[in-house]
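Recap for those who missed Tuesday's class. We walked through two folding examples back to back. For each one, the amino acid string is listed first and its predicted structure tokens come directly after. Nothing is annotated here on purpose, so try labeling regions yourself before you check the end of the notes.
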Amino acid sequence: MAWLVGHRNRHRITPHPGAGGGFWEIATASLIDWPSQTRGVELLRHRDGALEIVCTLMDHDAGSDSLAHLHRALARLGAGAAAADLQGGPLDGDVRLALGRRR
């Protein structure tokens, strides 16, 4: 299972183990604040019945003369020293999360 949480102003993926298998908490930053990214979430079922969540962070593809590019630069400046924390670590971005086999 997964719990998708938006507008936490930081990217975080947290496992919550439990007797029934637990769940993944997938938090994604808002688009207006740093890191100004969206998260794609895909659910895959493999041939052996195993389920997997694939999370991919995406930046906008805007030219350096666009308002979108300026927004991202200003959002980075606004984040200041907290920018790295808001971006999250390697396990908070592009990841594949196992859910086990479907019963």
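Example two. Treat it independently of the first, because the proteins are unrelated.
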Amino acid sequence: MERVDPKRHLARTLVVTIAALSLAIPVTVEAARRGAEPDDRRGSNVVKVKMKDDGRLRFKPASITVDRGTKVKFVNAGNLTHTTTSDDDLWDERLAPGDKFTRRFRQVGTFEFHCTIHRAMTGTITVT
């Protein structure tokens, strides 16, 4: 049986750990503060907005600020059907529980949206 040098084993473990961490999904402080979640294993700009209906109907987060070119993925994480509908008729998607819809925001501006089924559900995406 081969004897393992503890120092060499520790060094290998550290190298593997550092390599694994460098491949992790980048999470910016700003995204974490907003409650948004990066959602792409390759690290491209994707921010997730969940539709929730666990006692309170809402988009979570309801308001986000993203860079131009960012994709926003709407995920129906609830038990009811919801829509993500632009107030300016730019998009309108009906999502059953578990469904997803992604839209890339290429223009700077403020984009308000709502759920046509549950009018109390509203949100804002600010693109800078």
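Answers for example two:
The two ends are 61 Å apart (CA to CA).
The chain has two helices and ten strands.
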